[in-house]
Amino acid sequence: MLISIDWIRDFVSVPNLPAKDIYTRFTLATAEVEGIITVDEHLEKIIIAEILSFEKHPEADKLNLVTFKISETENRKVVCGASNVRVGLRIPYAPLGVKLPSGLLLEAKKIRGVLSEGMLCSEEELGFALESEGLMELPGDAPLGINMLTYFKMKKDTILDIDNKSLTHRPDLWGHFGMAREFSAMFEVPLVNRFTKEWSEGLIKKFTSDKSPVTPRFEGDSAGISYFGLSLNNVTVMESPEWLKSRLKACGLRSINNVVDISNYVMLELGMPLHIFDRDFINGSEVIIKKLTNEETFKTLDDVDRKLLAGDTVISDANGALVLAGIMGGKNSGVSEITKNIFIEVANWKAAMVRRTSTRLGLRSDSSQRFEKTLDSHLTERTLLRTLELVLELCPDAKVVGRAEYAGVNLLESKPLEIKTSLHKIKTVLGCDLTDERLKKILHALDFKTEDNGSNLLVTVPTYRSTKDIEQEADLIEEVGRIIGYDNITPISPLDVIAPVKLTEMQKVQRRVRDFMVLQGKAFEVMSYPLIGESLLKKVSWPTSTSLKLVNSLSQDHDLMRPSLIPSLLEVAETNVKNFERTRFFELGRAYSEDAANFSKENLHLGAVFYDKDKNPFVEMTNVMTNLLSSLNLSFEYTERNLKFTNPLVPAEWLGNHPFEFTNIKVMGKNCGAIFSVHPLILRNLKIKGHLTIALFDLSIFDNYSAKDKTKYKPLSKFPSSSFDWTVVMPFEKAVSDVLVAAKKVKLKELQSVQILDIFPNENVKYVTIRAVLADDTSTLNSELLKQAETALIDATTMAGFNLK
Length: 805
Fold this sequence. Notes:
Elements: E1 2-4, H1 5-8, H2 19-29, E2 33-39, E3 47-57, E4 60-69, E5 75-80, E6 90-94, E7 109-111, E8 114-116, E9 119-120, H3 123-126, H4 148-151, E10 157-162, H5 176-187, H6 197-204, E11 215-219, E12 224-233, H7 242-250, H8 258-270, E13 275-278, E14 286-291, E15 296-299, E16 305-308, E17 313-316, E18 321-324, E19 328-329, E20 342-349, H9 351-361, H10 366-371, H11 380-394, E21 399-408, E22 417-421, H12 423-430, H13 436-445, E23 449-453, E24 456-461, H14 473-484, H15 505-519, E25 524-525, E26 531-532, H16 534-539, E27 548-549, E28 560-561, H17 566-576, E29 582-594, E30 600-612, H18 618-631, E31 636-640, E32 657-667, E33 670-678, H19 680-685, E34 691-698, E35 722-731, H20 737-743, E36 751-761, E37 765-774, H21 783-799
Parallel strand pairs: 11-14, 25-29
Antiparallel strand pairs: 1-10, 2-10, 3-4, 3-6, 4-5, 6-9, 7-8, 12-20, 12-21, 13-20, 14-17, 15-16, 17-18, 18-19, 22-24, 23-24, 26-28, 27-28, 29-30, 30-34, 31-32, 32-33, 33-34, 35-37, 36-37
């Protein structure tokens, strides 16, 4: 969610701190900030200019050389391709050094041989429109030489990009006014609450005593809780003023027209969604809130026909559904440029029912995201009045028709939540020194009311905090702690005997694997989501038929349980290769599949990725896995790919299998893993240039197999070892492991190890370099023994059909 600091300043004087300090303080006190965005900064450097003359470019028919002035004494020239260039036109000019919203940095350069000193701009280039033609035309009286920020009375703004997951329990923070209250408490500055009783009474005077042309009515059980409606006539639908468009754009919404923009603006300000109908399209004198009894098709405002089921709540008129309750309005009653009379709906809906319908339809709107957080019905009247205020401000000729109509629960009957606590309890739990005055100041800043009750404190919770957030004393203590700042509380170790946690065999294995991959494999651990989407599977050409699908998924990108770690690992690799020429990472995660009894089966897998832009890491991965499996006391072997004996971890039909760089890991006669290079075709889809090797191993084997460390100490030999390298020629389609098998058949007690050193692919063959290490713990190896060993190794590989290069 995007929050504008400039908008927050409407309600509270945010200290003039660097953006990073605000970012840090908010993250520690309230919710995680994922990033900081500065908007409209470029407009401070864009100045108003006037065209003096223009002529055709000598080398291009569609370009003009435009001479313009930015003051009475300074003229400049640019090359311009716009069709609406004319003498006397006042336009925005971007000088050299300005960076436009598209990322374009204006530098001095020649265009078809003519030097251009900057750029004359269109609305699209300035970020005022998604599309535009020609230069942005300013009024003839636009002051020459002033910047666009000053001209439009706009301000530079800092936007906090807040992680939505941090706010799921705080429906009050889904609007700028609620956020302003947090800033007030964090920085100990007063909150300017313009939504006072006097403000409300002033707007209510606009109502008349007559009945509204449209009234709401609940029919049976539905998702509805409360519903306010208000009618206005003589509304003028037109383009929104720049201040309104700018604020919506800063928060990620595009401008549509002034009436629709008002509904979005109020939602972003107060956190309560609303809907505005074109009242002339409402058939009859009432709107009915009800559950559908039959299936029907409904076209929403985004021009999509959606299949609604019996039980979905809609707002309908005499002819049928007009709005999908709490989610999106219908195309049949939306505001357009011909709208004259409107009906404002501000309602509250049951969170679970909105979420169920929204999830089933795959339609997560700004409205549904807020309603499913459990909003406070007491906010509906304020939202209605704020909407009315803005409509009257932007449409001065508009008139309220009748009174505000209400249906739903009796808001006066609800009693606020009261919680008993004490200063002593709060100080004890938080472990910090806190005065009674400081405690009350924090609670009052957060809009809690307090009443002394002997040594206790009776705290009244505001209704918008008790819908799903504040429930008990512990919640109050948390509120105080986060505003004080947990980083300001001195940590004290607990004085208690802590018994070590007894780990299961599987937990011990996981720790050993992690330690080995980090310390020996030099790899970073990653954690990817177990929920993936079909789009990712298609991107890596993974079979989709094996995936378990969620009934109520969060989104289409997270509606499948991953059948393997491979798609997730490739997605992580796709991100990492943009920043690194070589990288190593691994994950211990679960893969999900369907078992014979139609239940899900979860297996814990180790997945590792080695990437190198220039060098093939297949051999390095093989060596790391060899050492890892040996350290786990596993008796294993590498076997070549055999289509008769499939590997359960890597489907044979997957296009990512490299035809030649693939080996199975077999434990006790069963394929439990694989090491393979990813096929270049898949890497090309992911825009990965270079070589990428993956290792997979099913750690579920340790459910029935002990990984007890049986390593025995052996002192380092006093005598030097000797290594011998030789290179053989192999057919391209042969597995490299065949060379190792042949070399290991040599029976020499001095032969310590044999491993692949490197692979050099050629057109029809590949050259494989093998290294053998020989040593004797009792004496130094003599040259005659070394010569015999070398001959025996070469003969063994030659006899297997692999000639010396």
